[in-house]
Amino acid sequence: MFQALAKASAALGPRAAGWVRTMASHQLLVAPPKALLKPLSIPTRLLLGPGPSNLPPRTMAAGGLQMLGHMHKETYQIMDEIKEGIQYVFQTRNPLTLVISGSGHCALEAALINVLEPGDSFLVGVNGIWGQRAADIGERLGARVHPMTKDPGGHYTLQEVEEGLAQHKPVLLFLTHGESSSGVLQPLDGFGELCHRYKCLLLVDSVASLGGAPLYMDQQGIDILYSGSQKVLNAPPGTSLLSFSDTAKNKIYSRKTKPSSFYLDVKYLANLWGCDGQPRMYHHTTPVVSLYSLREGLALLSEQHPQCQHRGPVALQDTGQEAPPTFIWSCCPVGPIASPQSRVQGGSLGCSQLPVRLQGGACHIGLLGPLIKPLPRAGLVPGCPCKPDDTHPPREGEALSSHTGKGSRVVKGLENSWRKHREAAAYLHGRLQALGLRLFVKDPALRLPTVTTVAVPTGYYWRDIVSYLIERFGIEITGGLGPSTGKGYPDKASPPALLPPSLLRSPH
């Protein structure tokens, strides 16, 4: 056999040389880019805009793992674990739960392309850019779009939505849970039940809110829910989460026309993601490495953290300094801080917002910066039930030790995430208002915990503020988006110690 191959190669020699000459018969007109001949350089940035977020070490490490084939059984196992993670963070048991190979915007398109048919009535809450985008896509699909338009910062009541449902009799209602362009958190309780009373499906955008604000897909009657990977999940952008109720699935599977996109056809995607009980078939090449990172982002949010039940007061001594405390995960939330000075009174700060270390088997608290320091005994929490054998070494990605044992309970990661975002946002709002800045969303109950929007101060141009932070401190915040452009600048509800000292001390 080898002799036959050798003879064939010799016979083809002149012809093969001709092929090579033909392939190289033209000179290259474009030289290799000089920029690509240099090492890749990435600046250090603290991303406090509405997304993407900085990646934790565990997620970055996942992105450096070896590639697998997109149809390998190990990849399918990772995909199945991701589905379970989505069901957890969405709080749903929907079998038709999957990932879209694209950003959150791609998930919005997938939802609308599969549910809407030409001529369908589509009711859209337009109180920011994402409602605008949903209405635009609906028009492109030939739906009869009925926008309920509000100024940025507005939200929808059950009465307003019911009027739209009664008037337009839509097959689908779109609402944005967390409108990142304005910082509004849309209440959702009762909207699912209301929609179903009018034979309408409820579609909710949770890209900016998932993991930061309570959300219960099944219990709130949400039929279609989507989110993105790059916000609270702290995974790279480029993948998105999507789930359909059985009612929404029936609408899709009983369509009279094919969806206008093959790539986003949920019937094919359901098979690819193992949602239909059939052998998986090739549809498209999934972003395997991005799935590793998404899996780890879901895992970090899903992990359970033990919390000490102790609620004793902590006596702290005020040093009279202005440096703020930082929010770091603590195993032992001990309740209000007792302080002789008014600047830390009011019970707004607790040990759960302070760095904690375990020394000699007891909980200790500390602060970054000299604002307040523990009284004698190094901040020992009186009566804390922690014992030396209750401790464990810090896990990867944790800043300090956690513990379990007598007097402790397990708090699920999702609930912890909601709490941490709520507490961090409340602290940030208070500090910003103390500087004389005005929050864009007036009602505290309607403020999105993950994105804080601040009205641009009189006499300042928002681009100058954004540029100052990125150039002087490497901190990203952004201006408004869509209808809110120029009206405010959003910033994540982030640890206040990470904000620049000049911004904390003075509006100038």
Fold and architecture overview:
The protein is an alpha/beta fold and 508 residues long. Helices cover 31% and strands 16% of the residues. It contains 13 helices and 20 strands. It has helices spanning 2-23, 57-63, 73-90, 104-115, 129-140, 158-168, 191-197, 246-253, 266-272, 288-302, 413-434, 462-473, 501-505, and strands spanning 46-47, 97-100, 121-126, 144-149, 172-176, 178-179, 184-185, 201-205, 224-228, 240-244, 305-308, 314-318, 337-338, 356-359, 362-365, 372-374, 408-411, 451-455, 475-476, 488-492. The strands form seven sheets. A seven-stranded mixed β-sheet has the order 2-10-9-8-5-3-4, with helices on both faces. Strands 13-12-16 form a three-stranded mixed β-sheet, with no helix packed on it. Strands 1-19 form a two-stranded parallel ribbon. Helix 3 packs across helix 10 (288-302). The radius of gyration is 27 Å and the shape is globular. The relative contact order is 0.13. Residues 307-409 and 493-508 have low confidence and may be disordered.
